[in-house]
Amino acid sequence: MSSKNRSSFQVKPGGNISGRITVPGDKSISHRALMLGAIAEGETTIKGFLQGEDTLATAKVFQQMGIEIENNSDVVKVKGVGIHGLHAHNKALDFGNSGTSVRLMTGLLSAQSFNSELIGDESLMTRPMMRVIKPLRTMNADINCSDNGTLPIKISGGNQLTGIDYEMPVASAQLKSCLLLAGLYAEGTTSIVENKATRDHTERMLGAFSHPVIRNGNKISINKADELIATEIIIPADFSSAAFFIVAASICSGSDVILENVGVNPTRNAMLKIMELMGANIELQNVREQSGEPVADIHIKSSELKGIDIPEELVPVAIDEFPAILIAAACAKGTTRLSGAAELRVKESDRIQAMLDGFIATGIKAEATEDGMIIENSEFKGGVVNSHGDHRIAMAFAVAGMVSKKPIQINDCDNVATSFPNFVDIAKNAGMNIIYD
Ligand code: S3P
User: Fold this and answer.
1) How far apart are CA 352 and CA 84, in angstroms?
2) Burial of 403 (0-12, 13-18, 19+ CB in 10 A)
3) pLDDT tens-digit profile of 7-36?
4) Is the C-beta atom of 117 inside 6 A of ligand 1?
5) Is 410 exposed, middle or buried (0-12, 13-18, 19+ CB in 10 A)?
6) Which ligand 1 atom is at minimum distance from the Cα of 173?
7) For residue 346, which atom of ligand 1 is closest to its CA?
8) Residue 363 in contact with residue 382, Cβ under 8 Å?
9) Which one, of 181, 31, 169, lies nearest residue 99 by Cα?
């Protein structure tokens, strides 16, 4: 058991979501900006960096390897040391709760001249790592982990990697990005085929650092790099954090809100499509491009939602939004069915089980399947929910509290700080009746 103080949220029923909201910077893009900035030539400036525990874990790991990072909260400057400039570290690298950091960095560290040991918190230590270890071994990495295929990962440095052709067995941007980072160092070309599209932030950002990937249909290739060139990255607000307010505004009558400057990359934004199919009233305004990423202001008004069968092809492109989407499903007339979402079982918690537990605790009729869930329109009656230490489960049930008959208390909420440290303040200002203790 961690020694952390396990805080809780208490949300009282009522209120709606109104005004203009800016949620913090995108977590996925913030990690990648640090990683590429660290191994680029020159100084990279990152604007809108997410000051969350996960991205700060990535920053700390690079500081352990000799990278100077100036963190002035709204602007982060990374002094790049070049492709081969990282230093050996003498302590295990602790990635906290962050699956993205550890999986991407396993690719980068497999190519270094020094040894590395990678560890994380209770949750991260149980998450599957063989998906990255297997292809990295094929690339000639010397890499080991526990017998269960979990952390700690131990890498013996000094091996020259070689490019591979790899068809991804699982739709995972973390796996794809891990191999692209290893591919920067591998002799020849590293090619990855993805049968289902996953978020493409790494591919886009490599272009910004002057080492573009080659795309051919669903095949992405990267050549060994001599250098990356430092740049300025402006990070949009995180769509996955905006998701909680998209749902809250949709289900609380009288809501009318604009979420500003949100990343709407098409490999991330399928939740918009899912919510539209459910009857949500969502409009994208002022669509523009920023540092190679599409960005928009999202205008949401409350509406009557109806249950749907969620199209399976949208699942990988909305993977982090399901805790929020499933709350919307409970409020939607009729039945909603989610399938093809087994990956939810290996996130920060088993999100299918965690959502089911929360639904049972608050009076919602739902049934878990191996790869999804069936949810019947029912009333949140109130109760106590265990977030299982998962930030997105905690925030999803906070949203449910707004439409509940009696208050909902959510326990074990410390990890909300991994992705959305000021969630309570922003939610309160927008109209949620939430207390944090
Ligand atoms: C992420 C990819 C997704 C997502 C995670 C962030 C990324 O994981 O769930 O929160 O930044 O690459 P998978 O790629 O494992 O599905």
Assistant:
1) 42
2) buried
3) 999 999 999 999 999 999 999 999 999 999
4) no
5) buried
6) 14
7) 15
8) yes
9) 31
**Is residue 419 within 6 Å of ligand 1 at its C-beta?**
no
Whether residue 320 lies in the annotated active site:
yes
Is the Cβ atom of 177 under 6 angstroms away from ligand 1? Answer: yes
**Distance (Å) from CA 382 to ligand 1 centroid:** 31
* DSSP 8-state symbol, 123: T
pLDDT by residue (tens digit) across 173-205?
A: 999 999 999 999 999 999 999 999 999 999 999
Indicate the helix (H) or strand (E) that contains 181.
helix 173-183
The atom number, within ligand 1, closest to the CA of 316 reads 16
Q: Is 100 in the pocket of ligand 1 (CB under 6 A)?
A: yes
SS3 state at 170: coil
Start-end of H helices in 284-376 = 322-331, 351-362
Nearest to 194 by CA among 207, 175, 178, 211: 175
Structure-block tokens of residue 422: 């000021």
Q: Which is the closest atom of ligand 1 to the Cα of 176?
A: 14
pLDDT one-digit tens code per residue, 345-393: 999 999 999 999 999 999 999 999 999 999 999 999 999 999 999 999 9
316 DSSP 8-state letter: G
Instruction: State whether the beta carbon of 28 lies less than 6 angstroms from ligand 1.
Output: yes
Q: Considering only CA atoms, which residue is closest to atom 15 of ligand 1?
A: 172
* C-alpha 114 to ligand 1 mean position (Å): 27
The alpha carbon of 173 and the centre of ligand 1 are apart by a number of angstroms equal to: 5
Ligand 1 site-directed mutation target among 32, 55, 100, most atoms within 8 Å of CB: 100
Among residues 121, 320, 390, 412, the one annotated as catalytic is 320
For residue 1, what pLDDT band results from cuts at 50, 70 and 90? very low
Cβ density class 260-296: b for 16+ within 10 Å, e for less? bbbbbbeebbbbbbbbeebbbbbeeeeeeeebbbbbb
Specify the DSSP element, H or E, that contains 91.
none
Cis peptide before 152 (omega within 30 of 0): yes
- Domains of the chain by range and CATH? 8-25+236-436 (3.65.10.10), 27-234 (3.65.10.10)
3 state SS of 297: strand
